[in-house]
Write a structure and sequence with these properties.
The chain is built from 13 helices and 15 strands. The chain is an alpha+beta fold. The strands form three sheets. It has a six-stranded mixed beta sheet with strand order 5-6-7-2-13-12, sandwiched between helices. Strands 8-15-14-11-9-10 form a six-stranded mixed beta sheet. Strands 1-4-3 form a three-stranded antiparallel beta sheet, with no helix packed on it. The longest helix has 28 residues.
């Protein structure tokens, strides 16, 4: 039976989960007209998912290390427990799919089984359909989720079946380091501990004494409900602003989020916060070519979103300056690198410290804003072209909003996940993103 210890950060995500705060990622993918009936589509989706080895793994406790856990192949794996079909009315398919996605994102994954689910959503106009995917964060960070989930697409599945499976035999390796390795292991651990101390000090310095964090509209005791909204932005328009202002497309998108938040607060009739809200912006530490089963490899930047600044150009300049400072320091330093700190902790610390750590997020940041890259090539499922893919991120305890983005086909697809009680007007915030990009574009063109 295949077995693999959970990496420290994977273990942290596993133990941070509660009933009201499920720790799964999601994606809502929309496809063009299907050539087959729903029953055949469900069979294809099930067959593709069952062929992905990682999706057969479940979490089990281990004796050593104490407090640790391991991924082990589920001997009773049955893909029918994970892949389901839901027929939607189809009156407004996109809105119906987003509404259902919010309801399904509320529900924690069953921990005794491989922690993932897929839903085939049918009923779209002209035979179009959608697939909702849920993967536990312990199973996948954003980039690894793409690598795992891409196995359902025609192009990836075909490459997998035609690719040679021969591998050079690797001789067994002892778990005990040899004499020459001991010095290297010791030096590595000392460097890791030194880095952890530095990150820990940064986290303490950046923490806010008020445990309620920033603006009340972005901080909320969880209602256990989720609401999802989606929006599509033209990437060429984003790049037009980037060319005028300098920096990166991600700077433009972060400034767009800041402006949308400002509009949203004004529409609510709420005062602007005394201090700008802080966004946690994940950064992958995954090396190019790393296998998709190599564990969560994340750090992050902390970025103030200048919602108190009335000028959109000044907002963009402020975001660019903040991101430049973060990049100069690097993803392994600073308070945003709290995930690096988690990588240095003993499994027992994650197991028993999770209840404390879960409430600390609001002391560091107010919302998550993440950008998850997708393959650049055209993708399809059962011959139906992928039209849009909206990523969805989990909510930290005490927070009401997470924004996830993925570029595909010349467009930026944005998925917003919010606490359903705290942010019942999520659609207005989504509309504000398009409005803010239009204002930045007007400035860039002028």
């Amino acid at each position: 039976m295949s077995s693999e210890l959970l990496a420290p950060l994977d273990l942290a995500f596993w133990h941070l989960e509660t009933t009201d705060h499920p720790m799964h990622l999601g994606a809502l993918a929309h496809f063009g007209p299907a050539a087959d009936e729903p029953a055949a589509q469900l069979q294809l989706l099930s067959r593709r998912a069952a062929a992905i080895p990682r999706l057969r793994m479940r979490v089990r406790d281990v004796l050593l290390p104490v407090g640790g856990a391991a991924w082990r192949t589920d001997p009773d794996f049955d893909v029918r427990r994970h892949v389901r079909h839901v027929a939607l009315p189809g009156t407004d398919f996109a809105a119906e799919a987003a509404l259902l996605a919010g309801e399904l994102m509320e529900r924690p994954l069953e921990r005794g089984r491989p922690p993932w689910e897929m839903y085939l959503l049918t009923g779209g106009p002209d035979g179009s359909f959608a697939v909702l995917v849920k993967l536990h964060h312990a199973l996948a960070d954003g980039m690894r989720a793409v690598a795992i989930g891409a196995g359902i697409f025609d192009e990836i599945a075909a490459a997998r079946t035609t690719r040679t499976t021969r591998r050079r035999a690797v001789p067994p390796r002892s778990w005990m380091p040899g004499p020459r390795q001991l010095a290297g292991v010791a030096r590595s651990r000392i460097e890791e501990l030194g880095r952890a101390v530095g990150v820990g000090a940064s986290v303490v310095r950046a923490s806010r004494l008020d445990p309620r964090g920033g603006h009340a509209a972005l901080a909320a005791d969880s209602s256990g409900t989720r609401r999802v909204a989606t929006v599509v932005l033209d990437l060429e328009r984003v790049h037009a602003v980037r060319r005028a202002a300098g920096g990166t497309a991600n700077d433009v998108l972060l400034a767009t989020v800041a402006g949308a938040l400002r509009r949203w607060l004004a529409d609510r009739g709420e005062p602007l916060p005394g201090a700008d809200p802080r966004a946690l912006v994940p950064v992958s530490r995954r090396r190019p070519g790393a296998p998709p089963d190599s564990g969560n490899r994340l750090s992050a930047y902390l970025v103030g979103l200048p919602v108190t600044e009335p000028d959109p150009a000044a907002r963009l300049a402020a975001v660019r300056e903040a991101m430049d400072r973060n990049k100069a320091a690097g993803p392994m330093r600073g308070a945003g690198a709290v995930a690096v700190l988690a990588d240095q902790l003993h499994p027992l610390a994650h197991r028993f410290g999770a209840p404390i750590a879960s409430g600390a997020a609001r002391m560091l940041f107010d919302l998550l804003v993440t950008n998850v890259p997708l393959p650049r090539s055209a993708l399809s499922l059962g011959g139906a072209p992928l039209r849009a893919l909206f990523p969805m991120a989990p909510l930290a305890r005490g927070q009401a909003l997470a924004v996830a983005m993925s570029p595909y086909g010349g467009q930026m697809h944005i998925g917003l996940v919010a606490d359903g009680k705290a942010v019942p007007d999520l659609a207005e915030l989504a509309a504000g993103l398009a409005e803010e990009l239009a204002e930045l574009e007007t400035w860039a063109g002028g």
